[in-house]
Write a structure and sequence with these properties.
- By secondary structure, the chain is α+β, with helices and mostly antiparallel strands.
- The protein has one domain.
- Helices cover about 35% and strands about 20% of the residues.
- It contains four helices and ten strands.
- The strands form three sheets. Strands 1-2-3-6-7-8 form a six-stranded antiparallel sheet.
- The chain is elongated and about 85 Å long.
- The protein starts with a helix and ends with a strand.
- The C terminus is likely disordered.
Length: about 230
């Protein structure tokens, strides 16, 4: 009986200070090893996403120049002869390789499980512009857009204005705020990893505008490209 009481007393005693300190030390060592690696991997992902979007808008800028030179007589995007976004997507498809396309009224096959609307998580370990928080002023989604998936898996959505009077909030950098681009002919929404999360503005979803002669984006604080 005394032996049993001794065991119960030791069981109720709890951890000693030394045991707690050892446990905290072990946790600290594990955190020191794993957290820097995790942050580094997230930083690499951000840089990879940034590289993809720059490649994408460069690709579309080059294609736009070919279209205005080879597909029009007036040599502007206002005279391509398209009446809707499906048409403009297919026109770009002559100069950019797609692996699949989806019309604005049948998007499922291209979205590959990704939500058409833009999600804004409340927390993130990635650098994120203030405006991209849940209370931010815009969301870049793919609702009602004509879709295409590029050879590298990037999802793009097209919105077209034949009068080239559309205003598009354009973002091509993680650390910049969006800029209103006026008199745009085409809005290109981009998700660099399609169905993979976070599907969030300023992280893996971006948007840029195409004017009459090419891609329009924020070049400096006070300058917008043609």
């Amino acid at each position: 009986m005394e032996v049993l009481k001794g065991k119960l007393m030791r069981a109720k005693r709890g951890f000693t200070l030394a045991e707690v300190l050892i446990t905290l030390t072990v946790i600290g060592v594990i955190a020191a090893i794993t957290i820097p690696s995790l942050v580094t991997n997230l930083d690499i992902d951000r840089k990879q996403a940034d590289a993809v979007i720059k490649k994408t808008y460069t690709t579309f800028n080059d294609a736009t120049k070919q279209i205005v030179m080879l597909e029009t007589t007036a040599h502007t995007m206002a005279s391509v002869g398209c009446s809707d976004s499906n048409c403009i997507r297919d026109l770009y498809g002559k100069y950019i390789a797609y692996i699949k396309t989806c019309n604005s009224d049948a998007q499922t096959n291209c979205l590959d499980g990704a939500p058409a609307t833009s999600e804004n998580p409340t927390t993130t370990m990635l650098v994120q512009p203030v405006w991209a928080a849940p209370s931010g002023k815009i969301g870049i989604g793919f609702d009602s857009k004509s879709l295409a998936v590029l050879a590298d898996g990037t999802l793009v959505g097209f919105e077209y204005d034949s009068t080239c009077q559309m205003t598009v909030e354009s973002l091509i950098s993680y650390k910049e705020t969006p800029v209103d681009i006026e008199k745009a002919c085409v809005a290109i929404a981009v998700d660099v990893n399609n169905a993979k999360k976070p599907n969030a503005v300023g992280r893996d979803r971006y948007q840029f505008a195409i004017g009459k002669l090419g891609v329009k984006f924020k070049a400096t604080a006070n300058t917008v490209s043609p």
